[in-house]
Design goal:
This protein has 183 residues and is α+β, with helices and mostly antiparallel strands. It is built from 6 helices and 8 strands; from the N terminus they run αββαβββαααββαβ. The chain has helices at 2-10, 42-45, 103-106, 111-116, 118-132, 168-172; strands at 14-24, 32-41, 54-63, 70-78, 89-92, 141-148, 161-167, 178-182. A hairpin with a 7-residue loop joins strand 1 (14-24) and strand 2. The longest helix has 15 residues, at 118-132.
């Protein structure tokens, strides 16, 4: 979530390499997670002529209230950068009403957008499914397509995303596997 926030606000494509350390606060009802991680920018890593370098990130993600899936990311920066208080990101489990117009008929992402952003789309999909259906372990989900409620597409800073997916574990059991996650 922290790297996605940073990439969205800064126009970068950092990819997580590893988590160096993390601390979970235990002094309040809702925990905060402080992480130090290492990431590399995809724009410089893959032979585009630029030199690739690892960056160390400092990230803070807080749960707003214990037992509710509302996360806030107030800090996501390269170590040494200053904090901008106006750059906050919130994930709220309160699901909006289904729009009057089918979002898959209006603002559907193209295949290249899905491919380029599969990591964070999959992260939010798995978080949404894990909260709704805690089953432990890895999920076997196939993203079919993604739509949004605004015309800004994948780079929208305030949008609802509708992720149509197949739950292959359910399909193997003969259950309904065509699902939509609203994030």
């Amino acid at each position: 979530m922290g790297l996605h926030r940073y990439n969205l606000l800064k126009g970068t494509k950092f990819q997580l390499q590893r988590v160096k350390k993390y601390i979970v606060t235990t002094g309040s009802a809702a925990p905060s997670y402080y992480m130090t991680s290492v990431a590399i920018d995809d724009n410089t890593a893959g032979g585009g002529g630029g030199s690739s370098s690892l960056q160390t990130f400092q990230i803070q993600v807080s749960q707003e209230s214990r037992g509710q899936f509302i996360l806030t990311c107030d800090i996501a920066r390269i170590r040494g950068e200053t904090r901008n208080d106006k750059e906050s990101m919130i994930i709220d489990i309160d699901v909006p009403e289904w729009p009057e117009e089918n979002p898959f008929e209006k603002y559907c992402l193209v295949k290249s957008e899905l491919k380029d952003n599969d990591d964070w789309i999959r992260l939010y999909l798995e978080l949404a499914v894990a909260i709704k259906e805690p089953r432990g372990g890895l999920f076997n989900l196939e993203i079919v397509n993604v739509a949004t409620d605004v015309g800004e597409g994948i780079n929208a800073k305030n949008a609802t995303f509708y992720i149509r997916h197949s739950d292959l574990a359910k399909a193997a059991l003969g259950e309904v596997s065509d699902c939509i996650a609203i994030v």
